[in-house]
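Q: Given only this backbone (340 positions), what sequence would you predict?
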């Protein structure tokens, strides 16, 4: 249930109103926008009479919400969420008109490799460094990542470049190694690992949630809801392609999800063109289309020697190719007044 308060409602009146509902066993989500304050009542509100709620003198209007994703939906939070990743001068924002690019190798292979790539992508304009330390692979015989050692190499690259670090968490037992990680990625295979999502609601770091390869938009938002309902509202959504009947690309990039999510959700949405197609030559075109359709950022795989990469070399751009792409993307973003 959505409760919109009158503009002249004082802080004391608002807190008293919130306390009343919490005392009755409801959760209350407060969203303060420029034009109004919106309260979202969380819990079983089916037996609540809207007229009874509206009788309070500070209430402007009351309406029921039919969408199952309450906190991730725009009804509870009319204004766009702005998520900050990193600290100090290296902090990067998503959702405020900036279109940050996250770039780096699929897997961290050595300290020298990831530092070299980090320096290259930063020079080209990337604002965050990606790199897998713990890797979920379809085959048990494929390279599984360097684990904790890979995270140490990422932190070294972070210290040398100032780029905030983005990497995937697969299991809660790995969380103890993530102190210096700035943005925790929950991959497509874990999008509906609800126990893991609930634990991500308890951490004090922003979460990058990737869409499952066969997930509907509703299921995607409900996974975000798990994190937010557990206490962490700093969620960035990521479209990385879905599985269809065709096999000419690795996955099918659903660019239509961007305008749709912009309408129904306040959370930033970024695009991963690398996993979407799995083909290096297609990545720049898909990246351009993603920016054109209004995404809040990109995550792109870059490797200094793609042919010898231990993971996903066929979809990784060489630093020179990434640099060429980064010369074009700002021009597309500028069409609707955004910056890279």
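A: Predicted residues:
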């Amino acid at each position: 249930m959505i409760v919109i308060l009158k503009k002249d409602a004082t802080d004391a009146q608002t807190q008293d109103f919130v306390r009343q509902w919490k005392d009755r066993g409801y959760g209350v989500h407060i969203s303060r926008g420029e034009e109004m304050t919106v309260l979202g009542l969380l819990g079983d509100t089916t037996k609540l009479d809207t007229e009874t709620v509206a009788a309070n003198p500070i209430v402007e209007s009351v309406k029921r919400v039919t969408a199952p994703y309450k906190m991730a939906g725009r009804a509870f939070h009319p204004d766009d969420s702005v998520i900050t990743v990193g600290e100090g001068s290296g902090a990067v924002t998503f959702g405020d008109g900036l279109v940050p690019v996250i770039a780096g190798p699929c897997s961290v292979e050595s300290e020298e490799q990831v530092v070299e790539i980090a320096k290259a992508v930063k020079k080209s304009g990337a604002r965050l460094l990606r790199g897998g330390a713990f890797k979920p692979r379809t085959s048990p015989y494929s390279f599984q990542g360097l684990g904790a050692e890979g995270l140490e190499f990422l932190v070294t690259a972070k210290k040398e470049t100032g780029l905030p670090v983005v990497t995937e968490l697969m299991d809660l037992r790995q969380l103890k190694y993530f102190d210096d990680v700035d943005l925790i990625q929950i991959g497509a295979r874990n999008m509906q690992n609800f126990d893991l999502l609930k634990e991500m609601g308890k951490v004090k770091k922003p979460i990058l949630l990737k869409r499952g390869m066969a997930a509907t938009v509703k299921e995607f938002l409900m996974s975000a809801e798990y994190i937010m309902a557990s206490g962490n509202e700093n969620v960035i959504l990521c479209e990385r392609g879905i599985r269809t009947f065709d096999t000419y690309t690795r996955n099918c990039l659903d660019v239509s999800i961007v305008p749709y999510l912009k309408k129904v959700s306040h959370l930033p949405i970024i695009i991963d063109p690398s996993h979407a197609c799995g083909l290096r030559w297609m990545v720049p075109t898909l990246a351009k289309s993603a920016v054109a359709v209004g995404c809040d950022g990109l995550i792109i795989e870059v490797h200094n020697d793609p042919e010898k990469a231990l993971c996903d070399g066929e979809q990784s751009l060489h630093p020179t190719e990434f640099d060429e792409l980064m010369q074009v993307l700002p021009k597309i973003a500028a069409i609707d007044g955004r910056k890279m």
